[in-house]
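Model it.
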Amino acid sequence: MEGAPGKDVASRLSHALVVAAAVAVVSVHLLKGLARVPAEPGAGLAVVAACLALVVVQLRHSTPALRRLAPVVPPVAWTAVELAVGGLAVVPLGVSIGLLCLPAASLLLERRWIPLLLFGGSAALIELTRSGSVRDTVDMTLIVAIGGIMLYAVTTLALFATRAHAARLTLAASAVTAERLRIAAGLETDLSEGLAEVRGLALRGDPTVLDDLLAAARRTLAATRATAAELRSLSLAPEAASARALLTSAGIAADLRIGHSEPLGPAGTVLATVLREAVTAVVRVGDARRCEIVTGERTGQVVLRVVSDGVPTAALGADVLDGLADRVHAVGGRLTAGLEPDGRFAVEAAVAATPAPAAAADPPELRTVLGLYFLVLGTFCVKAVLLVPVPLLGLGVPALLVFCGLQIRFATQESPRHARLVLLASAAVALVPLPWFGRNWIGAVGILAGALLIALPSRTGLALAAAAAVAGGVITGGGAAPALLAAVDVLITCVVVHGVLRLVRLVRELQRAGAGLARAAVVTERLRAARDLHDLLGHGLTAILLKAELARRLAATDPGRGRAELRDIVRLAERGEGELRTVVGGGPRLLFEAELASAKAVLETAAIKVEVDDVPVPAAAGAVLSVVLREAVTNILRHSRARHARIATSAGEDWVRLEVENDGVPDGVRSPGSGIGGLAVRLTAIGGTVTAGPDDGWYLLRAEVPAG
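Modeled.
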């Protein structure tokens, strides 16, 4: 709901609705003042000035520029001015007491209950003195009450909508903080203890504990991978982006179309596994030129399709995916694989979608305003009954109950079932009784017109609301002037009712948007933690396993070097504990120089000769390139028979580049692993790039990131 810089649609719309409502309630008095100008220029202009002044003073509650004057002009002074202007317009100038609904709304907004009671009594006394009719006095006092309550409702909702929009980022930040604490608690239990055990065993420097150390490291690495998978389970999008990067690096054109809603919950884990394995199969076979990845929702299920044009891939058929089929079936889903009519090979998985989150309860402010709106409907009923002829009360009371019931349903349900029938029934009850029930029933037409503006597209709603106003004026009859005033009354009620109902929907929309933003922020935080677990802790534990295996082999032949490897394991475990704090937002960023030294040591431990050609790297770029370097080293160890490797950094005015290459690449390998896709997602987010692939018998990974 963002608008122009510094402003937002919610605030502008809220303010516009308040202005429209305030102008609407004074419009009749303004028109009557203008009509007095030819005969009584002074009195007519004074009435016009009073109406405009009351609108401006009323808007102080919702207009930021006027609210900033509060320290200069105390609220009590504003209230005194508003009461004085209203009193002068009503008593000396003879304006209807209906104009006093604006000061009444201000007293309501400022919670000045005793002055409000005194004010209402004074208005009733003025009307009783003027008309001498108790019924007319009650009728006009109710008009003041209805107008004041509706203005109060519109202003209250507008202020709440503005606050809700402004608070959405704070709510999202709070959700992220809560999720970070929850993640931290889980990591402390599952992973921190494992790292502490590895460090403690390595500190003993005793080769006899190496089997226990290896077992602890493997358990911790398995827990790390399981935790990362669980954290990724809310979202399929990162895995899809990773798959696209992997396909692109293998020279396969990737077409990615995401059509599902997130978060996914447990379905995300299963579908991510299917996507990863299916795309890996496409890359390994190596004959595809194009691959489509499509997600969507169908009859309560999330559907994933991976379609490629590789013929050998089709020959493999479902054999590649047998294990996945069992996993998909275990969660109540289905997986199919086979040739499409056009000869392409398709893998399709469908699992149950996560149920949509329950709708949040209306906030107290909204419930209060809805209660007041229902009170206004009740007041309208009282007004209407006062002037309905006694013989027609048997028809009037049921009609009132039906009309109010329809409006309550419309106000509480944004999209009521059979909405058109509800509007049609409301129109019949509002318009048909007009010739018999008299002028007081015109309010029903105004309420109907406001509902039409909400329920229908703008042009249609405006046209039908205008038609309802004209129909109301014509049906009530009594000549051109009364018909015009009746139409104006309809439009006034229409604007105010539309303001209340539109703001009710706006507040609910903002509430949903805020909840959605918080959910998206939580998903993002979980994905960040999962990515960091994989890129930081996972690679560190892999290095610990490598060194522990080496120490075990050296225990009998070279005990001194074996103990050195154990000291390195202590250092790696301590670093892992620090990186675990980084995952939950409590640790420092990675230093590239330290990571480079560690990478060189790990590769040399694996009997790989390493050539380093480096230049100083800025801290911000180094933190990202450290993650890339870890992934590159892990891929060398896992996916090659390397004997030589080269690590080089270079820098320009606004960029920094890292290149890692190695020999020993098996024939036919086009991509080292799905981790490259994760790196592509990470680097793309900061404006960087990563490429990987065979290069003249070696394998080259190149990453470039902004220097700042």
